[in-house]
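Issue 218. Parser rejects a valid record. Input:
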Amino acid sequence: MRRNISESNLTAAPNSAKGVCYVLSPNDQTARAIGDSFAADKAVTKVLHDGQDADRASIQYIIDGQAVHDGPKDVRTLVADAINTATLYLQGKVPPQTNTYKQWQDRRPRGSRRPSSP
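Output the parser choked on:
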């Protein structure tokens, strides 16, 4: 599905809108699928993509020059949040809505800057 959507969008876009393409994805499999479909388009001169899982295939893409970055996410935080949410629902309660995920702020290396907002 990811690949189909990206291929449909590439087909609809004029060649003048292609060239160097940037793909920011919420996970590695999506990043690789979209990056691969972009790389197959002859009007795309370069594809820079990243994901957020740091799985082996994505690390190999970085080594091979097919990806530029991968941000590993601490799944322990995701798991703890999922367990807490499920527990609250089972107790008939509603978890608080925060609309943020502060992993970057809480775990960034000392001296690093937060990415600028668009």
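Fixed in the parser; the record now loads. Helices lie at 2-12, 28-39, 56-63, 75-90, 103-107.
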